[in-house]
Amino acid sequence: MKTSETRQNLPGTDQTVVVKITTLADVLKERGALPEPELLKTFQQVLDDLELAHSQAMLHRDISPSRIVLDGETWKLAEYGVAKVGTVKYMSPERCQGKPMDARSDTYSLGIVLFEAATGRVPFDAEMKFQIMEAQVSSPAPSPRAIKSTLSAELDRLILRALSKNPSGRFQTAGEFRRALEGVGRSVGVSGASARPAERPAHDAGGKLPSEPRRVKPAAILIPLAVIVVAAAAYFLLKGGIGGPKVPAVLGMSQAEAEQALRGAGFGVDIENADDTLAAGHVTSQVPAAGEKASGSRVVVLKVSSGMVAVPSLGGLTLAEARARLAELALTAVKVDSQYSDSYDAGVVVSLATKTGTKLVPHSSIGLTVSAGRATCPQCGTRRGAGARFCTNCGYKF
C-alpha cells in the first residue's frame, strides 16, 4: 500500500526524520471505492475518534481523506483545528456561506468522505471552486446507489441523511452517526468495529497534540482507585441500579431482532408502522432513545419501516428545492415537461406526474412539470405562443 510522507524534527536537535503515514486518501487512490463491510468498520472507528474530540469541545474543521490516518490498526482523524481554510470538496454548506460552524459541520464533511469511499467519487465537483461551493449549498447529493448499485439501501439512506443541506436534518452528533452505521452493519450482517479508543491526548489551542508527555503528579497514584470506583458504578447502573436499566440501541435492526434485544433486557415493546426509506421490517426510530431510561411502564415504542415513501407536495418549489426534497426521501426527480403558467414563476414546479401521497419504493423516479413563464400577456391578455419572447399583440417582453 502506498503511503504519504511527512518530515518531523527530532526533539532537542536540528535533525529531521521522514515519517511514513498511511492515509485514507492513499487507500482510495490505490483501490478506489471500498467494499461495504470494510467501509462500515473504517468509518465507525473514525467516528469514535471524532465523537471523543467533540466531547472535548474540539472541531476538526477540515475533514478529508488525507486527514484520516491509520494508527496501528485503527483509523483516526489527524490535525484537529489546524486548517483555517477548509477543502472545498468537503466543506459544509454553512461554511461555504460563512456561517457559524458546529459539530454538524464536521459530520457533513465526514459524510462527503463516506460518499467518496463508498462510490469512488465525491458528490460535488467542478473546475472552479465557487461552482463546488454553490453545489454544496444548493444542489442535492446524488444517490450513492445510482453510482454503485451494490451498496445497500440502508447505507444509501444514511449517506444522504449525513449530507442534508440543513444541519437539523443531519446526524446531530458523531455518536448518533456512528450508531446509525452500526445499525446498517447489523442489517446487512457486518460485525461491529474494534473497540473505541480509550482517550485522545488533550490538544492545545491550535488543535495540535503536545510534543512532550505530561509529567506524572504524585496525585496520579489515586487514578487506579478512581478507575475501579467508576467502573463499579457504571456496572451497577447498567445492571439496573439507580434510575433503572438503560434502553438498548435497536435502530436499523429487523423487528424480530429489536424485540428480542428489548425483551431480553426486560422491556416491553409497542410497534408502530412508518413510511421510510429503510428496508421494510427494520426499525427507524425508538422511544425512549438508546441509552435513556424507560418510564415506569418500561415499554419502548418502535417505528418499523414499511419500505415505502409517500410522494410529497412539491407545487410552488423551485426545481432545485424539489430535487432536494425528493432526495431526502430517496426519490429522483425527472423533469419531463414544461408549460406556461400565470400562477407560477418560471423555474417553479407546477405539477407532478405522480399524485401526491402515492406510496413508492425508494429510488423511484418522479416526473415534474416546471413553469416556463407567463401564459398570457399581463398588459393585453393575449395568449403566449410557443417559444414566444414577445407578445404578438402589444410587444410586451415575457
Features:
three-stranded mixed β-sheet; alpha+beta; 398 residues; Trypsin Inhibitor V, Chain A; Transferase(Phosphotransferase), domain 1
What does it look like?
It contains eleven helices and twelve strands. With 398 residues, it is α+β, with helices and mostly antiparallel strands. The protein folds into three domains: 19-187, Transferase(Phosphotransferase) domain 1 (Transferase(Phosphotransferase), domain 1), CATH 1.10.510; 255-307, Trypsin Inhibitor V, Chain A, CATH 3.30.10; 310-371, 2-Layer Sandwich (Trypsin Inhibitor V, Chain A). The longest helix is centred in the first third of the chain and has 20 residues, at 36-55. The chain is globular and about 75 Å long. 33% of the residues are buried.
